[in-house]
Amino acid sequence: xxxxxxxxxxxxxxxxxxxxxxxxxxxxxxxxxxxxxxxxxxxxxxxxxxxxxxxxxxxxxxxxxxxxxxxxxxxxxxxxxxxxxxxxxxxxxxxxxxxxxxxxxxxxxxxxxxxxxxxxxxxxxxxxxxxxxxxxxxxxxxxxxxxxxxxxx
Length: 153
Description:
There is one protein chain. By secondary structure, the chain is mainly alpha-helical. Helix content is 70%, strand content 0%. The protein is elongated, with a radius of gyration of 20 Å. The relative contact order is 0.12.
């Protein structure tokens, strides 16, 4: 009898999971470039957002920041290989067509982000919180600029 008491909770949870997974189309394309691209951006965000929270709220801890910068260093250049051609723009992608129709501008934005990211990683080693915060903001600004032009909300 006890098992049935929790049945509505379990059924509700299973229904919610089913609805949420049904909302997003699955990536059935060869090589799943959108899935890989989205995961690569998530991997960037794990360390990048943690660095930002540390600088904005938690208090700067040099050793931990360097660890996060090293993690970021292994991730920030990974998503770009999965943009391919316009055939990699399908749901659940939030990439705009302008990535391919304005390829030179997209490449400029990408390079600006990569340069700012390399600088952030390099500056992290100095342990100078002010310089690190400036480098972090520069990398963050590059994210925003690219998203403004090339990502659907």
